[in-house]
Prior knowledge:
- This protein has 9 helices and 7 strands, in the order βαβααβαβααβαββαα.
- It is an alpha+beta fold.
Amino acid sequence: MKYSDVEISSVSDLITQLKDHISDFEGPIWFRGQSISEWSLQPRLMRISSRPPETHYFNRFKQDASLILQSRPGSEFEWLFLMQHYGVPTRLLDWSESALVALYFAINKEPEHEGALWVLQPTVLNQKNRYKPEFEFEIPSFEDEILINYLPSTIARESKSSLLPMAAIAPRNSARMQAQQGVFTISHRENILIENAGDTVDHIWKYRIPSTRKGDLLKELKLLGTNKFQLFPELDSLSEIFS
């Protein structure tokens, strides 16, 4: 890790650590909250021990979702985004540009377990794949040429290449994704953990959140206006604002 694990017990602790760790870094910073600290950073598809080829999920989802959808996705990646949205295993991993959003996901479940807030420098991760943009801190979109190698059809056609995970941005075409300031990393063929990517791990670190502090942190986030309805602006979330 770029920094040793640090324990945080309040929003104030988080701000203090971020000031210490990223105040001198001018590039983008991404965050991911996980309710159990021991979990690795791997997409849902990669967590399946004896998984079928990605095309199994991809083709079945397209088959059954096509009739239901009001508008058909225009690209393979758009299909992957839709699959991710509805919980189908993919090579995508969700991140946020907001530390408070990620903190919410680290503490709103598994109250008996220590949580983790991961901090990623996405441009540093991408440099490990020899991505050299014209602007130092540019992050590619899924429409950029470098991401062609990560398309499901590309991976299905050949079996020899092995690339590290990449950070990329996608259109925020849903209220939920906009509210959560969502961005993605995408893994390639092999299950290479983001926290182990590259010869040196200088792109990522995490803050540990004691289980005993999750409840109090949720109250702090509520005071700051970060709650379920804000992050999931849907009718099913309305009940939380009255509790």
